[in-house]
Write a structure and sequence with these properties.
Bound molecules: zinc ion
Structural class: alpha+beta
Family: Belongs to the NrdR family.
GO molecular function, one term: zinc ion binding
Number of helices: 5
Shape: elongated
Cofactor: Zn(2+)
Largest sheet: 3 strands, antiparallel
Strand content: 15-25%
Number of domains: 2
Function: Negatively regulates transcription of bacterial ribonucleotide reductase nrd genes and operons by binding to NrdR-boxes.
Protein name: Transcriptional repressor NrdR
Radius of gyration: 21 Å
Strand order of the largest sheet: 1-2-3
Length: 161
């Protein structure tokens, strides 16, 4: 990486730290020629293969816009969506894969979206899982009800563990 000040082709790392979410490393560098200091941020590349076969970099923004449609009229804020998109990225990165398909992204969205808003979850699941009939909705709702009943007996915390 060239020095941004004098274009010297080399630099020395003087400090490096992992970001709070553990997904990137920030390095402080110093140019041995002009002494200028600058930072670089390093993240593992993560690509998404779309249904069309097109490959593009993972984008939290795209996760948010996909989920936002399902959240119309629901009490979900952009802040909630940002947290959800971060969880999705963490889930996907934890698999260690550098390339995932949109299906896996959809799967990673379902869990946190369900915690956020069950109506939005049903809307999203109906598109993602291609619900075709009322029975599909009824089955999904029955699953939610069953989990509520379970949560009722197990206490409010962490019923999905
Ligand atoms: Zn320099």
């Amino acid at each position: 990486m060239h020095c941004p000040f004098c274009r010297h082709p080399d630099s020395r790392v003087i400090d490096s730290r992992t970001s709070d979410d553990g997904l990137s490393i920030r390095r402080r560098r110093q140019c041995p020629q002009c002494g200028g200091r600058f930072s670089t941020i390093e993240t593992a590349s993560l690509n998404v293969i779309k249904r069309s076969g097109v490959i593009e970099p993972f984008s939290r923004e795209k996760v948010m816009s996909g989920v936002r449609k399902a959240c119309q009229g629901r009490p979900v804020t952009d802040g909630d969506l940002a947290v959800l998109a971060q969880k999705v990225e963490e889930t996907v990165r934890q698999t260690g894969a550098s390339q995932v398909d949109t299906n896996e992204i959809g799967l990673a969205i379902l869990g946190p979206l369900r915690e956020l808003d069950e109506v939005a979850y049903l809307r999203f699941a109906s598109v993602y899982q291609a619900f075709e009939s009322l029975e599909d909705f009824e089955a999904a709702i029955a699953l939610l009800r069953a989990d509520h009943a379970y949560a009722g007996t197990a206490g409010d915390d962490d019923a999905d563990g």
